[in-house]
Fold this protein.
Amino acid sequence: MDDNQIVNENAYPDDEYIYNETFIGEDGEEYYYEEPLISLFDVVKEYDKGMVKALNGINLDIFEGEFVSIIGPSGSGKSTLLNMLGALDKPTRGKIFIDGIDLVKEKDLSQFRQERIGFVFQLHNLIPNLSVFDNVQIPLLPTDMSNKEMKERASEIIRAVGLEDKKKQRPNKLSGGQRQRVAIARALVNNPSIILADEPTGSLDSKTGELILNLLMEMHERYNVTLIIVTHDNGVAALAERTIKIKDGKIIEDKYNY
Amino acid sequence: MSIIGIAIGITTIVALGLITTGMEDSVQTSLNDVGAEITVSNSSSVSTNTGLIDSSIVEEMKNRTGVIDAAGGLTVTEMNMDRLKSRDSDSSSLATTVVGLAPDKLYMMGINDVDGKIYENGTRDAIVGAEYAEVNNVSIGDDITLQGKEFNVTGIFETGSPFVDSGIYVPLDTLQDITDNDGVSRILVKTGEDVNDSAISDKIEEDYENFTTLTSEEISSIADDVLGILDTATLAVSALAIIVGGIGIINTMVMAVYERTKEIGVLKSVGWKSRKILTMILGETLVLTTLSGIVGSIFGILIPEVGLRLFNVTDFALGYSPKTFILAFGITIIVGIIGGIYPAYKASKLAPTEALRYE
Ligand SMILES: Nc1ncnc2c1ncn2[C@@H]1O[C@H](COP(=O)(O)OP(=O)(O)O)[C@@H](O)[C@H]1O
Ligand SMILES: [Mg+2]
């Protein structure tokens, strides 16, 4: 597996990226080596004292601004992988670097999560005794935003997911699609540069699912957000620029869709 | 839910605190000083009705150095036969102490304030203690039967000592007459100021080998002993209340925070620092324990108060002291914080994904 991924300069017009080296490709164009946003080296994740190997030697680089889908059968380790990519868990063995942070060594990842990660969980994970508005506002509370700014930001994002009239409701009063939209609003409220979504459309009808996907893809296209979606739906996977297939905790295919 | 659990703990601490303080207070008042400094009785007597002291000794006592006044008292016990027969559950007492004492010597029992009239020598008049009057529903002018004879109640007194206030006082000569006794069961001795009571009492015991004496100093030192024992008992009960209440509070807090492990996982996954999470839990714990403290204190007062009324307890009052409430609140807050922060700390140390797995 390559340590560095070849990418076209034009795909990343922003010059804040670290370019290690340039070279001329076979087609005569100039290419750059780019430092990956997330790098995994031989990552193994075991559960139950090694009885379950959820991830079994993953090597993977993901670059800033990519839209990646991770596909595989149930129990193949997709969620486990996504959690590693989002700094929500640490590997049993191997190394993970996210944005230059050594995940294995770093103790307090909270600020990194707060500033850069938006996570949409498979099971929403909304706090049941808080209103939609409060659930969405949660990621902003550790910031130094003023109350007014927080309120405005949370309201704005709730409007964007079309739940303005449900602000005061508790999550258990909402439909599955509405809850998922709250979860997305919560993931987006802190303007993350990486959005990770675990089967965001899994429990939804196709129309609602499409709406949710559009919402996420819009974030990716408009703000160049790195978008990683776990799915077991080939159609959803095909929307991404890159699809990683995993089975039994191993990557069996990693391809660009065009 | 959590409020109830914590409030129960506080209720336990407050209720037991009020009761034990009340017990201390009541012992303190029952052992209040009475008028006479020295009480002389016949050591050969087992009960107060046998082994009487000859009346002539009273004069001898009065003439001893350091002694201002002496009075003979005859004590008999009046059984309440009606009560025994009817097996009534009314609150009138089973046995009453009847004391024969000359009217001008009543002050030696601390009887100074009498509602109504004091009896005169040789009459079938009696005065009764306030406690007796209340329990047996007796008022001035009523007739009561003592030793098979009718007596007229001419007055009601209150000394503050439950022992004295639950008794009946009649003229000494009348009681001697109807019980066919010449002697007295006790001699109350009043000593002058600035004299050594224990020296006088030791001298009495020396001169009369059959007599034992009890000075009010001894009584108060016995009282101190009793209070000391009670203090230890109170401490033990309080410790028990604190342990029982404390375990309840810890348990409630641990459960309440444990249930929120998943919520803590959510907060961590969206970038909350462990410290912020702990601060939040700490704040909530303080609010929760304070609320529970108020609710628990109310119930801690209500339950024993209602209990006392329910069982018609009139001679015991709860002892309200700020100590009890400060203790209950202090314990609750400390224990609540330990019980709340510890599981929160553990949850905040988990990887977010692990915390999120809790249901
Ligand atoms: N916290 C955990 N404890 C024990 N086993 C786990 C845990 N999380 C996942 N697993 C196991 O690891 C494997 C991969 O799980 P997961 O990553 O959730 O798969 P997927 O998301 O592809 O369905 C499964 O066998 C699952 O049972
Ligand atoms: Mg999964």
User: Anything to note?
Assistant: Residues A 47-48, 52, 54, 72, 74-80; B 357 surround adenosine-5'-diphosphate (ligand 1) (CB under 6 Å).
